[in-house]
């Protein structure tokens, strides 16, 4: 169990959720990705009227991090609606697996007190690698 402040990461995801652009689903999601050097990269879901170009909060955070040179990650917090336990979709699991191994910690919830801790290995056993 990696040693980092769960509440700080969850609160960063909750702040990012405020920027969610989700006029079609009304389902606001925020993510906060903790890199090995301690930097937190946030993201929110960004929907599109053509639907398929929509971006999940997790992939938004990964794109921000990787495009700024980060490659190693310890954990990601994902928060959807307050009463939910929003887990990353299959595409986001595979995108996370590109940069992380099974030990990546994933905090899934709706608030900084209502969440479940799991790992990428729990959510994506035998992920694809070339
Ligand atoms: N969504 C995320 O951003 N992350 C998830 O883990 C699940 C789903 C978004 C995609 C879409 O904008 C909305 O939530 C409803 O599916």
Quote the beta fraction.
Answer: 15-25%
What is the approximate shape?
globular
The value of Rg in angstroms is 13 Å
* Uncertain residue ranges: none
Number of structurally distinct domains? 1
The description of the largest β-sheet is: 5 strands, mixed
Q: Which architecture per CATH?
A: 3-Layer(aba) Sandwich
Order of adjacent strands in the largest pleated sheet: 2-1-3-4-5
Number of strands: 5
Tell me the CATH topology. Cytidine Deaminase, domain 2
Report the total helices.
4
Secondary-structure class: alpha+beta
**CATH homologous superfamily grouping:** Cytidine Deaminase, domain 2
Average pLDDT rating: 97
User: Roughly how much helix do the residues carry, as a percent range?
Assistant: 25-40%
What is the terminal-to-terminal distance? 28 Å
Which ligands occur here? tetrahydrodeoxyuridine
- CATH class term: Alpha Beta
Order of SSEs: HEEHEHEEH
Condensed summary:
The chain has 130 residues and is α+β, with helices and mostly antiparallel strands. The protein has helices spanning 6-17, 57-66, 90-99, 120-123, and strands at 30-35, 40-44, 73-79, 105-109, 115-119. β4 and β5 (115-119) form a beta hairpin.
């Amino acid at each position: 169990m990696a040693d980092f402040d769960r509440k700080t990461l969850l609160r960063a995801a909750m702040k990012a959720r405020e920027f969610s652009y989700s006029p079609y689903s009304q389902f606001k999601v925020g993510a906060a990705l903790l890199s090995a050097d301690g930097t937190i990269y946030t993201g929110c879901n960004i929907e599109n009227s053509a639907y398929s170009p929509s971006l999940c909060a997790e992939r938004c955070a990964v794109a921000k991090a990787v495009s700024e040179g980060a490659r190693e990650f310890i954990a990601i917090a994902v928060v959807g609606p307050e009463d939910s336990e929003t887990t990353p979709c299959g595409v986001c699991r595979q995108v996370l697996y590109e940069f992380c191994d099974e030990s990546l910690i994933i905090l899934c919830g709706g608030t900084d007190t209502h969440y479940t801790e799991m790992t990428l290995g729990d959510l994506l056993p035998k992920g694809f690698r070339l």
